[in-house]
């Protein structure tokens, strides 16, 4: 803006206006624009965004009605940052420009002094470039401020898009993987400790019913361990078996990255990945847990299994006897139903609970509902993040492209006068934007991966693990969005250059 108003600034100085009066034009504009934008942002931040987040979480949690409050310190900080970002640069740019004499300001701004760029110090590479590519490289380094603005702007938009889409992918798949690929049972039916033969026969008869596909006897216990960010008491499910072969029909124990099966051995247990992360243990390490009576038990890690919901410890009968010092005996059944629907699972769970010998029933429907709630809540928040990222990409690329064309209109008009076609003239200036956007995309992938890792580590509850892998959609979509924005803006630039008045642009300002 200061460059575009250079001639007017020189005229005002020649008429006797002081530097402070001329600078007031730019600082007032920056102040007004930043104040208006901040007012809109503060209003949305105090009302719209809290309502979106509250609506996302209230869908699955019992929460009190949201109370919107005004935060004066945050508001003051927002206004201060906005004014620093808009008013201070305007003042600095204008003060630098107005140091010149009025006669100099009335003339076009001289081009930047030429110098060798970095690529020229590598003759084998530089000499292989054609004339157009050499001009592009020179122009990129000639306008260093715009270069960094483009790279960092695209990087910010791509990192937000990558993180948002990657988080959506990470949370969207855990339900299917947990209950279709890893856990194959529908119920765990726990027996009372003092059952007689008639009661056990009643359970056996129910397990052989038409609605049950299969069942297997296991040792089921609820252990505990103080861990996590807040040192909360974590509930851990222990499942032990003396039939490892049949056990695999109800649970798939595997490494998340390699899908290598995790085998139950005599001298250690297989634990869920989220539990291993919280306890900061790996294969070969030992850790302690508290059993149902409060006694501490030491367990060696023999394997770490992929598991997204809940904390689990799996072991065979020999390992159980070694850890707990008791003879192994079964006290529960893992049950697979013919109909895996939530309604049928709840119905069959209620049926088992009516039996006198049943102490309790663990249903997968509870975990499924919890996953559905978490996924739905975070998806709404990620959608807002993705929308903001797309708008950021559009605004940044549009502003920088428009600025690039307006500042170099004389240069572009000269090229057209020399016989360049409109498409060639467009690519002459737009090739720089494309190249810088590619660099911004690559940098954005790195920052997006870091942001994704931070979100999936800090956001989920202690008993939930999001998939750390980044899907190909999270990598492809940001590049496609930037490419579409660049294509649309390229067409706008083409139309703008097609209708530009070359003679008017080349007229001397004298």
UniProtKB/TrEMBL annotation:
InterPro entries: ABC3_permease_C, MacB_PCD, Membrane_comp_ABC_pdt. It is found in: Cell membrane. Residues 148-343 form the MacB-like periplasmic core domain. Its main location: membrane. The keyword Transmembrane applies. Keywords: Cell membrane, Membrane, Transmembrane, Transmembrane helix. Coiled coil: none annotated. Residues 1-98, 384-496 form the ABC3 transporter permease C-terminal domain. Pfam families: FtsX (PF02687), MacB_PCD (PF12704). GO terms for cellular component: plasma membrane. It is a multi-pass membrane protein. Belongs to the ABC-4 integral membrane protein family. This is ABC transporter permease.
């Amino acid at each position: 803006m200061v460059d575009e108003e250079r001639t007017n600034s020189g005229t005002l100085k020649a008429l006797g206006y002081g530097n402070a009066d001329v600078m007031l034009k730019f600082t007032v504009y920056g102040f007004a624009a930043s104040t208006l934008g901040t007012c809109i942002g503060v209003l949305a931040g105090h009302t719209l965004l809290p309502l979106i987040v509250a609506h996302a979480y209230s869908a699955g949690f019992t929460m009190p009605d949201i109370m919107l409050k005004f935060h004066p310190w945050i508001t003051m900080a927002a206004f201060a940052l906005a004014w620093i970002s808009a008013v201070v640069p305007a003042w600095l740019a204008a003060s630098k420009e107005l140091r010149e004499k009025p006669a100099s300001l009335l003339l076009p701004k001289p081009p930047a002094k030429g110098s060798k760029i970095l690529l020229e110090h590598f003759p084998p590479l530089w000499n292989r470039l054609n004339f157009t590519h050499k001009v592009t490289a020179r122009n990129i380094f000639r306008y260093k401020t715009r270069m960094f603005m483009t790279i960092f702007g695209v990087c910010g938009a791509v990192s937000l898009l990558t993180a948002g889409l990657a988080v959506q992918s990470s949370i969207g798949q855990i339900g299917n993987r947990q209950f279709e690929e890893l856990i194959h049972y529908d119920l765990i039916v726990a027996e009372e400790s003092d059952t007689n033969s008639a009661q056990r026969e009643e359970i056996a008869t129910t397990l052989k019913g038409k609605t049950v596909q299969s069942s297997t006897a296991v040792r089921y216990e609820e252990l505990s361990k103080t861990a996590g960010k807040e040192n909360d008491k974590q509930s851990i499910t222990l499942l032990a078996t003396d039939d490892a072969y049949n056990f695999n029909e109800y649970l798939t124990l595997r490494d998340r990255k390699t899908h290598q099966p995790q085998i139950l051995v005599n001298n250690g247990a297989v634990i869920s990945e989220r539990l291993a992360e919280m306890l900061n243990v790996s294969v070969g390490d030992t850790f302690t847990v508290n059993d149902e009576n409060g006694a501490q038990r030491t367990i060696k890690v023999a394997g770490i299994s992929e598991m997204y919901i809940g904390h689990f410890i799996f072991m065979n009968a020999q390992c159980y006897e070694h850890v707990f010092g008791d003879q192994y005996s079964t006290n529960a059944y893992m049950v697979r139903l013919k109909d895996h629907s939530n309604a049928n699972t709840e119905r069959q769970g209620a049926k088992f609970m009516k039996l006198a010998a049943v102490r309790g029933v663990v249903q997968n429907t509870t975990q499924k509902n919890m996953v559905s709630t978490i996924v739905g809540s975070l998806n709404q928040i990620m959608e807002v993040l993705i929308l903001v990222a797309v708008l950021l990409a559009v605004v940044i690329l549009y502003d920088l492209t428009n600025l690039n064309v307006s500042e170099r209109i004389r240069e572009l008009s000269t090229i057209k006068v020399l016989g360049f076609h409109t498409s060639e003239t467009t690519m002459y200036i737009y090739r720089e934007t494309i190249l810088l956007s590619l660099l911004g995309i690559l940098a954005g992938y790195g920052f997006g991966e870091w942001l994704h890792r931070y979100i999936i580590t800090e956001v989920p509850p202690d008993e939930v693990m999001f998939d750390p892998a980044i899907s190909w959609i999270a990598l492809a979509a940001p590049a496609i969005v930037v490419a579409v924005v660049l294509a649309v803006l390229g067409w706008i630039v083409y139309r703008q250059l097609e209708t530009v008045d070359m003679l008017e642009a080349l007229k001397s300002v004298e």
